[in-house]
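#struct-help
A.M.: can someone run this one for me? Single chain, 79 residues.
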Amino acid sequence: MGFGGISPWSLLLILAIVLLLFGTKRLRNIGSDLGGAIKSFKKSVKEGEEDTAKAKVEDQDAQGRVIDAEVKKEDKDKA
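D.P.: on it. Structure tokens below:
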């Protein structure tokens, strides 16, 4: 038994049929496009994590800058 109940010979037969249908050049292009998409996705995830970390630091800074004060009203006599 092989992968998922498919024998290794069946997998080789399926691979051969796919190669005959699409050709090696098209499969190479599909592989490079897929690899580029995965690379781009990983880069985006990494940038998103960095942005999230920066936002957390900025939120912590903003919380530390709270000023508590009271307003006093002064009356000026006009005489």
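A.M.: thanks! The mean pLDDT is 81.
D.P.: also worth noting: Residues 23-60 form one domain.
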